[in-house]
Design brief:
- By secondary structure, this protein is an alpha/beta fold.
- It contains 10 helices and 12 strands.
- The strands form 3 sheets. A 7-stranded mixed sheet has the order 2-8-7-6-5-3-4, with helices on both faces.
- A hairpin with a 6-residue loop joins β9 and β10.
- α2 runs parallel beside α7, α3 crosses α6 and α8 packs parallel to α10.
- The radius of gyration is 21 Å and the shape is globular.
- The structure holds 4'-deoxy-4'-aminopyridoxal-5'-phosphate (PMP).
- 4'-deoxy-4'-aminopyridoxal-5'-phosphate binds next to α3.
């Protein structure tokens, strides 16, 4: 071989995020972003931000944002960890907590970044099949494991589990870390936050990308016991002390402090979701019950890739995963009422 260094390079199949088209005339329903702008306080914070502050490093500990989140969730600031989007928080959590020889467990249909991190960090894993309705059976997790990661609600199915389910899971898995990925929890599911005071091995990961309309700023956080958070901090500080920039820290704080705007935005998305689900059912789609800002659907008469391509031609972008068990399903992010009307009209014309 004339380039022997090639044999030494890392080979990996990366996660592929939803496309980010640059054109303005596209209805973008493919990355579970929020169709509404962030809280007015975020705009104000960005407008009045003094650029000379950027000459200095940001607060590596993100104290003000941690205080705001601790206050919002009724925990101590030492129980809050911050990251550059929840992908960053999850990647660090995988490295921090999944260090055993035993496989970690997660559903066979779930966030497709999990296997990528397992591969990257060489973590053994086993997928646990969802049932035929895409529901999780808690008893399937009663087996020796190196840790568990479960999104609640799950993605891309949209289905959620109850607080009783989560408590059962934690009671039967006290000897490993259980990560609950609550990226979509604000759209109607039950958060595991009330269980934090009882279970030291519980880590909850949330994001400002969805319910707080801040996907572009990259803010994620974890809530957990002081022991878990201190471990995450140590691992983070072993690779990059400054994962959060000064703008994100300031704007994130403004977003958390506007509870009324947050609640109102979530209510709007939920109302549009429920109405859209009904209209899709009227067009013959089977629609999974959703507690998220997206719908997971299939049509008995038309193949998912055909519907996907048709909508794409009409400049409506949704998401299709060519993966086992779900390759005839589509994931549709909830946009504004007007965007959903245009999508429904296009589907009606197609069908
Ligand atoms: N978890 C799940 C289940 C997701 O769908 C996403 C969004 N792709 C994330 C975490 C990561 O979101 P972010 O990095 O924007 O916080």
């Amino acid at each position: 071989m004339d380039k022997p260094f090639l044999a030494k390079l890392r080979r990996i199949d990366p996660y592929v995020p939803g496309e980010q088209p640059q054109s303005d005339d596209i209805i973008k329903l493919n990355a579970n972003e929020n169709p509404y702008p962030p809280a007015p306080g975020v705009q104000e914070t960005l407008r009045t931000f003094d650029a000379s502050r950027l000459a200095l490093y940001p607060d590596a500990n993100g104290k003000a944002l941690k205080n705001a989140l601790a206050n919002r969730f009724g925990v101590k600031p030492t129980q809050v960890f911050l990251g550059n989007g929840s992908d960053d928080v999850l990647a660090l959590a995988f490295q921090s907590f999944f260090c055993s020889e035993q496989p970690i467990l997660y559903p066979d249909i779930t966030y497709s970044f999990y296997p990528v991190w397992c591969d990257l960090f060489r973590i053994p894993y086993e997928t646990v099949p969802l049932d035929e309705n895409f529901c999780v059976n808690v008893r399937d997790y009663d087996k020796p494991n190196g840790g568990i990661v479960l999104p609640n609600p799950n993605a891309p199915t949209g289905r959620g589990v109850s607080l009783d389910f989560l408590e059962d899971l934690l009671q039967h898995n006290a000897d490993c870390v259980v990560i609950i990925d609550e990226a979509y929890v604000d759209f109607g599911a039950q958060s595991a936050v009330p269980l934090l005071s009882k279970y030291e091995n519980l880590l909850i990961v949330q994001t400002m990308s969805k319910s707080r309309s801040l996907a572009g700023l990259r803010i994620g956080y974890a809530l957990g016991s002081e022991t878990l958070i201190a471990t995450l901090e140590a691992v983070k500080n072993s690779y990059n002390s400054y994962t959060m920039d000064a703008l994100a820290l300031a704007a994130g704080e403004a977003a958390v402090k506007d509870e009324a705007y947050f609640q109102a935005t979530c209510r709007k998305v939920i109302a549009t979701r429920d109405r859209t689900a009904e209209e899709l059912r009227a067009l013959g789609f089977a629609v999974q019950p959703s507690l998220t800002n997206f719908l997971f659907v299939t049509h008995p008469a038309k193949k998912a890739p055909e519907i996907f391509e048709y909508l794409r031609q009409k400049k409506i972008f949704i998401r299709y995963f060519k993966l086992p068990r779900i390759d005839n399903y589509l994931r549709i992010t909830i946009g504004t009422d007007e965007q959903m009307d245009r999508m429904i009209d296009a589907l009606r014309a197609f069908l």
